[in-house]
């Protein structure tokens, strides 16, 4: 099958809609998303989840998913609370605290108590703080680690939404509600469109969205989330693999919706309708036999002109519970660096030993400003401009050409531009020629503007 130009235009328009959904920020439409979840289960011939939990970020949702499915034990509740005992003791978990009972939503606050391990509490009584040096971390945290405050809050949120410690989510339903309908739809699309038609349609409806959504946003979020969980709550890390990407699934749903418009008789979107509804209204989510765990969309999503996560004043992607990703032109950066960027000095940039971090600093500080304030050396000057050199410790030299716009501005002044060129450049002309992909000998402009 060969698509017409009209069909390709239609496919691109559908991709625009899904791109907008994938980048949407702000509160989820929880009612619509929950209806989508139930529809996804129904289309998979499964009973809908008995309960749907909501969290402010994928991090909290992933931790909740790990808590509900077993790899992470709940934090034991503080003495004197009346929480119910677990219905099923988690693997490696302590017995419930004596005196615990139904009706409590109390969870230990962040602080010293959060470092008390479930196993250690099995034999502990009142005055737990006295044994703090002997406690072991609960299952889910690494040896010697304290439970992170955000995990305590995630557990507390589960309790507020009606979860009883020990109640389990059942088996993962991701394969049934997400993978299987995707595979069936793809197989049917190939039959309906043929390999060439499917490739053409995939390009028309997915050429932009895959790199913009999956590579530059969802992939970054997945990597960062995996790293954060590995560092702070290792047993929750595999939960990331079970995530359904919600709004970011638009990167592939666009192709199937376009295919369904081209071949309505193939009925390609019917079994994807639930997934599509969730994707239009929610962030990442987790599907289990008895429960589903959904997360909100980000409240902030800042990107540069080519779509990379990019922000110097705060997280480039931030969620309602404070979880966020800091990035500069797509490169993840530590949150403390982001706070430092507005007050950078030449000395601070010079002292930075990590070349990638220093590059971020230089881009934010401004190469030309740094050359000027750091005492760069002029190594050449000709009719094309001036070549400057500055050695950077542990990195290649910073070499830039200072050029003056030949066309004056309306006020009679001439704008100055700075062009970073390869460190081996030895003349301004060679540097300017390099920016055009030419050698110094080949660069012979008839008119300069």
TrEMBL record:
Biased segments, Low complexity type: 89-107
Top-level division of the source organism's lineage: Bacteria
Coiled-coil blocks: none
Protein's organism: Actinoplanes lobatus
UniProt region (Disordered), positions on chain: 73-107
Biased composition (Pro residues): 73-88
InterPro entries found in the cross-reference section: DUF6745
Domain DUF6745: 239-449
Listed name of the protein: DUF6745 domain-containing protein
Any one Pfam family match given in the protein's UniProt record, by short name: DUF6745
